[in-house]
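Hello, quick one for you while I still have it in my head. Could you read through the record and tell me how the tokens relate to the sequence? No rush at all, and the record is pasted right below.
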Amino acid sequence: DEERLAASNRTAVIQSGFSMTHSAGFDAWMRNQKGLGKHNFFTADDLLREAKGGMMGGLIEATGSTTTPLPSLTATAVRYDRHGPPEEVLRVDPQYQLPSSLEHGEVLVYWLAACVNEEDLLRVQTPLTILNNFPPFSRTKHKWEEIRLPATAGGEGVGIVIATAKDVTPLKVDEGDEIGKAVRSLPGLSSGKSEGLEVKDWVVALPDARRSPVGCWSTLSVCDSSRLLKVPAQLLPLQHYACSRSLCTAYRLLEDYGSLRPGDTIIQNAADLPVGQAVIQLCKMLKIRSINLVPDDEGFER
């Protein structure tokens, strides 16, 4: 009896100080398995999002039709029709026609500011899907997403929601993954809180490098609400919000590695990039000495 009791305690779902229903536990297990790339599954929300030109070919529609019509809208956007050198393929389209409606889970965003970084230019040069043929991406379900051309560039920015579909679901962030860590780094955000997006909400693009860019280099764009994170309005200057991914990355680098103290010294490569510049500024605030390496480039301001 004692052996059976000990074995039961080791495998119990309900432990001291923590309780979980069977359905909630199964849902958590499925999310974990999907995150590890061991299994794949689809919720009703996943199927409706994929239905828009995805694997379902537009054959699935929500009951009662969640489509929200939009007036005829145009935007000024930085677009590209093919991959290649950014200076050759990028173009400014002053009359980019937006979709005529918002589909399931979509929102219309007015972008206030956007960041220009190396990742944006790299995604313009190449879709990076070739990496799916090599480890570790060849062994996981989380592969680099193919960019559907023509596309709008820009994967990092801050904007205001000005229209929503009828059923924008609450954002659910797994606080154990890298996106969850980045979310917790943003000031003013309470962990574990899920809210649907509403008109006038301020949002930033969630960091997810392997997915196609959100398209922040535009005055207006239609986005999947699951790719956006609600933030407190005007808590930070626009420039800081626009570069929030770089700021969060820099903070996690200093916070998670080395147990740094005032007076310590760090050495970093690529100090001329947004993350590197944020590291330099944070080090100055934290009284940490930094040795910064930059490429010998004529374009770098000495």
